[in-house]
Amino acid sequence: MTIGDRIAVASLATALVAVALGAWLLLATGAAPATADGSLDFFSEPSGSAIAVLSEALVVDVEGAVLRPGIIQLPTGSRVADAIEAAGGYGPHVDLAAAATQVNLAAVLRDGQQIVVPLVGAATAGGSGNGGAGGLVDLNTASPEALDALPGIGPVTVQKIVAARSEQPFGSLEEMVTRKVLTNAQVDKIRDLVTLG
Predict the structure, then answer these.
(1) DSSP 107-156
(2) What is the pLDDT of residue 88?
């Protein structure tokens, strides 16, 4: 066998392996539709369901008055209600009246979206001078129950917050760290959920 023959045989073997691998991948994802006679058509476009299977899941951030706040992965097409359910549902400190007006459970989720479920004792528009502040917990005025519902804040930290704010209200989240009421990690967890009235 000449060198040319060997190259031809090697090229043919490589091509056969590539075709076999491609066929296996299409069969594994269900992307190869059947023709009228039942054979597989590897050259047509994949069906919509196959594309949906291959698409990535949505990643959303659920915070506030849920049992397990944090990052959640859900299938494309999921609704806000699905995200809240995946976060354990409403927590014991949810403000149901505020949630009914601020959280659209039927809305379709988009990747990277944040959902904040309002807590009881959250700041009102009058408390901050900002109509968009509804749903945020005012660290200077919120009830101990509302503070305890924040992620990363437990009963001991709640006592520290209440004691420190009674001496002097907080001017910034960074001040809470310098006064040794919260750690930087705790501040990072609650930054988007709180305000200082």
Answers:
(1) SBP-TT-EEEEPBTTBPPHHHHT-GGGTT-EETTT--HHHHHTSTT--HH
(2) 93
